[in-house]
Amino acid sequence: MPVVRRITVDDLWDALRLGWEDFSAMPTHAIFLVVIYPIVGLLIGRAVFGADILPLLFPLMAGFALLGPFAALGLYELSRRREQGLDVSLPKILEARHSPSIGAILMLGIGLGVVFFVWIAVANAIYIANFGYTPAASMPDFLHRVLTTRAGWTLILVGNGVGFLFALMVLTVSVVSFPLLLDRDVGLAPAILTSIRAVLANPGVMALWGLIVAISLAMGSIPLFFGLAVVMPVLGHATWHLYRKVVV
User: Fold this and answer.
1) What crossing angle do the helices spanning 64-71 and 36-50 adopt, rounded to 10°?
2) Distance CA 54, CA 162 (A)
């Protein structure tokens, strides 16, 4: 089993600094890798408005945080190659597929996908429990329901509470597991256990990391998701450096 270190808040800031440096050194590659996020975000928004599933817009946006650790796999590879002084040209993003642990990576990625769809189903059930099956007539009507009624406040409290539990679970099992699988020939179970041990050894720092990720993704989503083209690569690169600091 990999050895886990105790880290400090200073290590966290340093990981973010290194993540920004990686992004600054390879902006074209990183933006190219995550440009799908703004596109998918806009398509999701259009589908939501057109399909009368407006209540799922926020859960779908929040779901980016659940899929992010897997989606950033190419960013980990770029940071790994830059750290070792290797070629970081655009085609090298795909080198992650040659990892000896690619099978475990795909299994864990599928697992996150399942968690994402379960979260959407639970969020929809919470909305129906509070407002029934009658769809909102418009965005103003939806906001009026959520922000000015007792059922709306219940929806906010319960929905965010349940969403926090989903995010905590994903953070615990994936904060270092994907970079570890990319970096070493380890199995799925050791990678997940190492991630859990990393969180248990550094609960305060990891809680702060989760808060930074949540706030950053929320801010990146506000301007029609385009901010994610910067937020996602910086967080992805920083995750690699956080893994380096936590796992010996």
Assistant:
1) 150
2) 19
In the prediction, which pLDDT does 221 show? Answer: 74
Cβ-contact 106, 121 below 8 angstroms: no
Per-residue confidence (pLDDT) for residue 36, from 0 to 100: 62
Q: Which is nearest to 87 in space by CA: 4, 26, 15?
A: 26
HEC string of 192-215 equals: HHHHHHHHHHCHHHHHHHHHHHHH
Please report, as a single letter, which amino acid is at residue 77: E
Long-range CB contacts (< 8 A, 24+ apart) of 96-103?
96/182, 99/181, 99/182, 100/185, 101/181, 101/182, 101/184, 101/185, 101/186, 101/187, 101/188, 101/191
Rg (CA), the chain: 19
Q: What is the pTM of this model?
A: 0.86
Cβ neighbours of residue 98 closer than 8 Å, sequence gap 6 or more: none
Report CA-CA distances (Å) from 64 to 34, 59, 146, 172, 229.
12, 9, 22, 16, 13
Average pLDDT along the chain, 248 residues, taken 10 residues at a time: 94 96 81 63 62 73 82 88 84 78 92 93 90 75 83 90 92 94 91 96 94 86 73 91 95
